Amino acid sequence: MAPWIDLPYEIRNVTPEEDKIIKKCLIGYTKPFVKCGKNEYVMAASFRKHAEEIYNLEVRPDDIWVITFPRSGTTWTQEMVWLIENDLDFKVAKAKPLHERFPMLEVTAHIPQVAFELIKVNFMNLAYFQGLNHAVRKPSWKAIAEAPSPRFIKTHLPLSMLPPKLLSTAKVIYVARDPRDVAVSYYYLHKMIAKTLMRATFQTFWEAFRRDLLPWTPIVAHTNEAWEKRHNPNLHFIFYEDMIKDLPKEIRAICKFLNRKYSADKIETLAEYLSFDSLRKNKNVNNTAGDNTEVQFLRKGEAGGWRTHFDAEMELQAEEFISTRLRGLDLSYPSFQLNETECSHL
User: Fold this and answer.
1) Which residues sit opposite 154 in a β-bridge?
2) Which terminus of the chain, N or C, has fewer Cβ atoms within 10 Å?
3) How much is the pLDDT for 179?
4) Of 71, 45, 42, 23, the residue nearest 217 (C-alpha)
5) Quick check: pTM over 0.85?
């Protein structure tokens, strides 16, 4: 067994003012949220109890990890990767929930304190959402540690908070998305989970997002950690927008990364299966918290949808938000380019 490694980063409480901003957008959290490491990633208070175990999780050579900031094409990529690795076994994919085939590492650490007992009694159908009924009974990281190989692991944690030997041991796929579209999709996720208890407007949610005061933020720093490692042979970096633009091309690239070969016909079949219309109808992938067809885990699968949610002021705020955080970085988004004035100040 590998020697235990102490956390290389600090965990501290957010300020009372920051905690109020976060809790305007999220429900059920009673303790102060925390910030982790030099990039100050926001996490629920209970992450303190799980951080070291997650950091010391033993990585296996046949693991495949999908890492994203929330709402960046995670589910889409998980289903694609699982099928590529399992000989396009659509029968099993349609029969077994994705959260069982491809579990989330830190889900237990993010469940609101008041939700544990509610999930156990299946309040508002929450027990059936993304495997929460399992996560409240056994820590998600522990279930993954005990799972047989090969393991498929999903996480929203940035590389700096994951096991240090991850990239030297296992295959990792990172998916990035335009932060503006992420903000919209992230809002609707919380609206789906909280249902009528959700009081925050999108404007309130956006204000927290652009201040890097929502779980797993800051998004640009999160993405940049992976972008800086994109030349590592064990890391495959994808933009969500490129998947929208040409899915078969991205499937072929992932097949090459995973050393899997499929005919052009099979790749086309997989691409059709992975279309959003198809996945939205698949209950084992589009796992909602109830029967509401208006608000679902998989929403629209589009790029640029943020434009219908942002007013002129928010649009300017978003431009400043992304430009400021990209300044000095090599990272850029396909859907957002710094203008010449911005570039001259880099």
Assistant:
1) 66, 104
2) N
3) 98
4) 42
5) yes
Contact 228, 56 (CB under 8 A): no
In whole angstroms, what is the distance from residue 98 CA to residue 53 CA? Answer: 24
> Can you tell me the distance from the alpha carbon of 210 to that of 199, in angstroms, rounded to the nearest whole number?
19
**Which pLDDT value is given to residue 132?**
65
Q: Print burial letters for 260-269: b (CB count within 10 Å at least 16), e (below 16).
A: bebeeeebee
- DSSP code of residue 60: -
Q: How confident is the model at residue 131, as a pLDDT? A: 59
Which of 172, 201, 175, 221 minimizes the C-alpha distance to 71? Answer: 175
The string of DSSP letters for 78-136 reads HHHHHHHHTTT-HHHHHHS-HHHHS-BTTHHHHS-TTHHHHHHTTGGGGGGSTTHHHHT
Please say whether the beta carbons of 105 and 121 come within 8 A. no
Nearest by Cα to 178 from 267, 286, 71: 71
What is the structure's pLDDT at 119?
Answer: 64
Query: Residue 72's closest CA among 323, 310, 327, 298?
Result: 298
Question: 53 Cβ partners below 8 Å, 6+ apart?
Answer: 139, 141, 142
Amino acid at 246: D
Task: Give mean pLDDT in consecutive 10-residue pieces for the chain, a chain of 346 residues.
Answer: 92 98 92 97 96 98 98 96 98 93 94 69 54 73 97 98 98 98 93 75 96 98 98 98 96 98 98 84 56 46 86 96 97 80 43
Name every residue whose Cβ is closer than 8 Å to that of residue 260 and which is 6 or more positions away in sequence: 84, 85
**Alpha carbons 51 and 249: distance in angstroms, whole number:** 37
